[in-house]
C-alpha cells in the first residue's frame, strides 16, 4: 500500500481547485495548472483538501495512487509558492548571459552555446555565473535545469562545469609525478 497516497493534499487559501473531465485544474496567485488524473485512481475534493483513492487493485493501481497524490501536492505548491533551482558555473572564463529568452553560454568551447528557455520557466542570471530557474511546474523547472547542467557537467579533476547549488563534486587526484632518483 502507498504511504504517500493515503495522505490528503491540503489546499491553502487563495488556491481554487476543480475536478472535471479526467483532470484536476488548480488556480493560484502564480498561475494555473492542469493535472490529468492517472488510470486506476479517483480524486475527490472534500472541503479544503484533495483525497486520492484507488479504483482498482494491483501493482499499477498502487503505484498510480502515490504518484497521483505526489503530482497534486506539487501542483498545489507550484500555484501557491512556485519552485526554483539554482545552478552555478565554475571555471575560468565560463559565464552566461541572458538575451530575451535565450541564454548564451561561454563554456570553453570554440563557440558560444545557445539555450532557449521553454515556456513557463523564467531565468535570472546573477553575476554571470549563477542561474536561477523558477516556475510553477516542478517538472518543467527541474527538466530545464537538468538540460542546462548537461551542457557542461562538472569534471572530477578541477571541478569546472555547471553544477546545482550545494552539489558536491567528487574530486579525483591528478597524475602523480614519480620523483627521479639518481
Automatic annotation (TrEMBL):
<feature type="domain" description="Large ribosomal subunit protein uL6 alpha-beta">
    <location>
        <begin position="11"/>
        <end position="82"/>
    </location>
</feature>
<dbReference type="InterPro" id="IPR019906">
    <property type="entry name" value="Ribosomal_uL6_bac-type"/>
</dbReference>
<dbReference type="InterPro" id="IPR036789">
    <property type="entry name" value="Ribosomal_uL6-like_a/b-dom_sf"/>
</dbReference>
<keyword id="KW-0689">Ribosomal protein</keyword>
<keyword id="KW-0699">rRNA-binding</keyword>
<dbReference type="GO" id="GO:0019843">
    <property type="term" value="F:rRNA binding"/>
</dbReference>
<feature type="domain" description="Large ribosomal subunit protein uL6 alpha-beta">
    <location>
        <begin position="91"/>
        <end position="164"/>
    </location>
</feature>
<dbReference type="InterPro" id="IPR000702">
    <property type="entry name" value="Ribosomal_uL6-like"/>
</dbReference>
<protein>
    <recommendedName>
        <fullName>Large ribosomal subunit protein uL6</fullName>
    </recommendedName>
</protein>
<comment type="function">
    <text>This protein binds to the 23S rRNA, and is important in its secondary structure. It is located near the subunit interface in the base of the L7/L12 stalk, and near the tRNA binding site of the peptidyltransferase center.</text>
</comment>
<keyword id="KW-0694">RNA-binding</keyword>
<keyword id="KW-0687">Ribonucleoprotein</keyword>
<dbReference type="Pfam" id="PF00347">
    <property type="entry name" value="Ribosomal_L6"/>
</dbReference>
<dbReference type="InterPro" id="IPR002358">
    <property type="entry name" value="Ribosomal_uL6_CS"/>
</dbReference>
<comment type="subunit">
    <text>Part of the 50S ribosomal subunit.</text>
</comment>
<dbReference type="GO" id="GO:0022625">
    <property type="term" value="C:cytosolic large ribosomal subunit"/>
</dbReference>
<dbReference type="GO" id="GO:0002181">
    <property type="term" value="P:cytoplasmic translation"/>
</dbReference>
<dbReference type="GO" id="GO:0003735">
    <property type="term" value="F:structural constituent of ribosome"/>
</dbReference>
<dbReference type="InterPro" id="IPR020040">
    <property type="entry name" value="Ribosomal_uL6_a/b-dom"/>
</dbReference>
<comment type="similarity">
    <text>Belongs to the universal ribosomal protein uL6 family.</text>
</comment>
Amino acid at each position: 500500500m502507498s504511504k504517500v497516497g493515503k495522505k490528503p493534499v491540503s489546499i491553502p487559501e487563495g488556491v481554487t481547485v476543480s475536478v472535471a473531465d479526467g483532470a484536476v485544474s488548480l488556480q493560484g496567485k502564480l498561475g494555473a495548472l492542469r493535472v490529468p488524473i492517472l488510470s486506476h485512481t479517483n480524486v475527490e475534493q472534500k472541503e479544503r483538501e484533495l483525497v486520492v483513492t484507488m479504483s482498482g487493485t494491483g501493482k499499477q493501481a498502487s503505484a498510480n495512487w502515490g504518484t497521483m497524490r505526489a503530482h497534486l501536492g506539487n501542483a498545489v505548491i507550484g500555484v501557491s509558492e512556485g519552485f526554483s533551482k539554482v545552478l552555478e558555473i565554475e571555471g575560468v572564463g565560463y559565464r552566461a548571459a541572458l538575451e530575451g529568452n535565450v541564454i548564451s553560454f561561454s563554456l570553453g568551447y570554440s563557440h558560444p552555446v545557445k539555450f532557449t528557455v521553454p515556456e513557463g520557466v523564467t531565468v535570472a542570471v546573477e553575476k554571470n555565473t549563477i542561474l536561477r530557474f523558477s516556475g510553477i511546474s516542478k517538472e518543467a523547472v527541474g527538466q530545464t535545469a537538468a538540460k542546462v547542467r548537461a551542457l557542461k557537467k562538472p569534471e572530477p579533476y578541477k571541478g569546472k562545469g555547471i553544477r546545482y547549488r550545494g552539489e558536491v563534486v567528487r574530486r579525483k587526484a591528478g597524475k602523480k609525478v614519480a620523483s627521479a632518483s639518481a
